[in-house]
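Me: I keep going back and forth on a fold encoding question. No explanation is needed for now; the record alone will do.

Assistant:
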Amino acid sequence: MRQGQNKHDALLEDLGSIVREMVTDLDHSARHITKKPAGIRFSNLQSTVYSIDAPIAHRPPPLERYTKEWIDFINSNKKSLDKKAIGFLCWVPEIAIDTRFLACVENSGITLNRRSLTGLVRSCHCMWEDVWPEGAPVHIVRGLLSQHRGTDQTLLKWQAHLDALLMEHAPQIMAGKLLNGGKGLVSFIDEWRIEPQSAFFRRIIETATAMCRNRLDQPTSDLLVLLFRDLLPWPGWEPSNFKKEIGDIILYRPMSNRSREMIQRFILHFEGLGDPRLSANRLKWMEVPQKAQDRMIHWLGRENRHVFSEHVYQQGKGWVWKQMISIWDPLSFENTDRR
C-alpha cells in the first residue's frame, strides 16, 4: 500500500515538473516577442485593416472588356481585334454572326482553335431564328470549320456532317438522326455536342416530335419512349408551340390504341396539362385547340369513368375542392432500350 502511494507521489512530482517547464518556455517566448516593435509584429494585420475601406481596383470582366474592344473596332477607333478578343467573342452570338466580325477573323490570319470554332457553331445555333442558313455569316462559319485541321473528334464529326449542322434543312436532318439513332436525348446531345438551349436545338425537338406524331398509327416502342420520355417533357419548349403540338397529337388520325392510351397517361400526369375536366387545369389548356380538348374529354369519359365531383361538401370542412382519381398510372420507362 505504501509502495503504491510513493509511486503516485512520484507521478505527481513529474507532472508538476513538466508544467513548470512549460510556464518557463511561455514566459521566455513572451519576452522575445515584446522585444520586436509593434509595427513589425502587426504589419500584416494593419495592412489588412487599412485596406478594408480602400477602393478595390477590379479588372474589367472579359465580356465587358472585349465588348468594348468590339465597339471600338466597329467605330473605327481600333484597327483590328487581337487573338484573345476574337477567341472570346466567338462565344457571344450577337457579335459572332456579324459579318464585320467574321471578316475580321478571316483577315486576321489567325488560325481558330477548337474552342473558338465550337463557339462560332454554337453562336449560329443560338441565333438560328435570326440568320438565314444560306446567308453570308453561316456560309463563312462553314468555311472556317471546313478549313480546320486537327484531331478533335467533335470537330471532325461536324466537318463530316455540315449538312446536319449549318445548312438550311439541318434541323430536319438532325431530327431524323435522333429518331433513327436508337439513343435517348441526353446521349444524342452528348454525341453531337449541340447547345441544348439554342434555337437550333429547339427546332430539332419540334421537328422530331412532329415526325413521331406522324407515326402514331404504327408506333414502335422506341419511338413512343422518345416521344413521351424525352421530347414532350423537354423543358425548352415555347409554351404556345407545345400546346399546339399537344393538340395536333390528340387530333392525329389514324392512331393505334396503344398510342392513344400513352397520350392520355402522359397528359393526365404531366404538370403542365393535367385532366382537362378539372377547373383547376383550364388555364393550362387555354392554348390547346378546343377540338383537341373535346376529343381528350371524350376519351377520358369513355375510358376513364372513375371521375369524382370537383366541388364536394365534407362534414366539418364545408365545400372543398377534390381532385379526380385517374385509372391511368404514370408512364414508366425503366426497362427501355433507348439510353
User: Anything to note?
Assistant: The mean pLDDT is 84. The CA atoms of residues 274 and 280 lie 9 Å apart.
